[in-house]
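Annex B. Sample input.
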Amino acid sequence: MSTTGQEIINLVRQQLLEPVAGFWTDAELLTALNNAQSDFLGTVRSLDAISTFDTVAGRQVYELPAGLVSIRKVFINIPGTDGRDNWAELKPYSLEKLSQEYPNWLSDSEADQDDPARYMIYEDSLYLHPVPADDALEVRVFHKAGPSAMTLLSDYIAIDDSLKSALVSHILWNAWQKDKEPERAETERRNYLFYVGQGRRFYIRQMGGLTRTIDVDSSTGLI
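Annex B, continued. Sample output.
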């Protein structure tokens, strides 16, 4: 990934017939580039990530990784008496459901501590319930992580250089919509969808041919 934001914007400006900033400012196009990158990566499902942390006895709240978009599954390893791994899925709860079923869920008193069985997401934190009684229980969070926002034109894009045309088409699609050019917007929309197909094949090849269902629901699956 050696293509910079400036290079993408230069390609966009060629199509907009605006070689230097005028109606379209660099700041506006950089925002459009960030939006394009997030949309593309989310659509081709290359945002999957796994984050790991260890529990601390008596501690309920753990900070979520930066850039987290949504959570798919959370697992905890509670080894047996023989020391063998014993992984279990934590059940997702909403704040309302957790409060209704376990009114005293915020208690971290030693008498209420136990092996966690469920989790709740609030703002940028993950809450375990019950509060863990043991240190060093490994927790793995399978989630989608958005790309870091590009803040400078010299920043590098977060996708393979061979797929950069997708970003150009996405930006132009939205630019022509804003400029009330529906035919041009539709052309770029179709181009973008073509590049999305290329992107899916690219990332499947990277995974060794393993195919996965595209998740179009960005919710966290809380009950």
